[in-house]
Amino acid sequence: MYASIRQYRASDTEELVRRVRQGFVPVVRKVPGFSDHYVIDSGGGVFTTVTVGLDQTGVEESVTKAREWVRDNAADLIEGAPTVTSGEVVAHTRLRPSVM
After folding, report:
1. What is the pLDDT of residues 22-49, one digit of tens each?
2. Quick check: is 100 in a domain?
3. Which domain does 36 fall in, by range?
């Protein structure tokens, strides 16, 4: 499992999240090996995205798709280049629902 964390500064976080939901999510869902995508409002015009994939190729493709999508659909809202961190997930824990 691999993951990519991208942190952006936006002039209008609400509008950016709306565009991501409508435009980017359908794009990233089509990436082979895609697993999960999260958007985190970090406050103060900063937001963070986390993409999880089954393999490195899928995550690298998601980073490329994100760069292209932002360039074509949200450049007017993004301030500067994002900080991108990608790598292999080396530990993972999932909350399991309690059994009643």
Report:
1. 999 999 899 998 899 899 998 999 989 9
2. no
3. 2-88
